[in-house]
Amino acid sequence: MTGTAQQTPSTARPSEVEVHSLDVTHVHGDAYTVEVRGHQLLVDQPTQAGGTDTAPTPTELFAASLATCVAFYAGRYLKRHGLHHAGLRVHAEFAMSTDRPARVGSVRVVISLPPALSEQRRAALLAVASHCTVHNTLHEPPEVSVELEP
């Protein structure tokens, strides 16, 4: 048996990544439903873009995803420190890029906090909220593939 190396089985297993899924189905015109964990969302386009304006656009949901993630992290910070949520609000604005490819060019997220929050707590909350999962994903983009079903 010269030339063969003895193999020792590894006891360490690679960590498995949980895969989340959702399904998008055409409803009518430019409207689609999104099904996620038993919840349904609707997306559409404004009438001036050919839709029926029955729901937000996918791009609006993108900005909403960031804003709600920031709000969630801010809320969890407040809860963890025994502080009240009253007055917590998040406002988001986005602008489309003026060049190609079509994409969001900028997003501004503003957090309105409960009035009694100290400057130290405000800074700490901002640090936590600005590292929400969606914001982190925008800074470290995921690998994305778009494929056709065989």
Descriptive account of the structure:
With 150 residues, the chain is α+β, with helices and mostly antiparallel strands. It is built from 3 helices and 5 strands; from the N terminus they run βββαββαα. It has helices at residues 58-80, 119-129, 133-139, and strands at residues 23-28, 31-36, 39-43, 89-96, 104-112. The strands form 2 sheets. Strands 1-2-3 form a 3-stranded antiparallel beta sheet, with no helix packed on it. The protein has a two-stranded antiparallel sheet with strand order 4-5. Helix 1 packs across helix 2. The protein is globular, with a radius of gyration of 22 Å. The model is unreliable at 1-10 (pLDDT under 50).
Provide a concise account of the structure shown.
This protein is an alpha+beta fold and 150 residues long. It has helices at residues 58-80, 119-129, 133-139; strands spanning 23-28, 31-36, 39-43, 89-96, 104-112.
Helix segment tally: 3
Helical residues, percent: 25-40%
The tally of beta strands, per DSSP, is 5
**Distance between the ends:** 45 Å
Tell me the structural class: alpha+beta
The whole-number mean of residue pLDDT values reads 91
As laid out across the biggest beta sheet, the strand order is 1-2-3
Q: Rg from C-alpha positions?
A: 22 Å
| SSE arrangement, N to C | EEEHEEHH
* Biggest β-sheet description: 3 strands, antiparallel
Q: Which descriptor suits the 3D outline? A: globular
Strand content: 15-25%
Detail the poorly predicted runs.
1-10
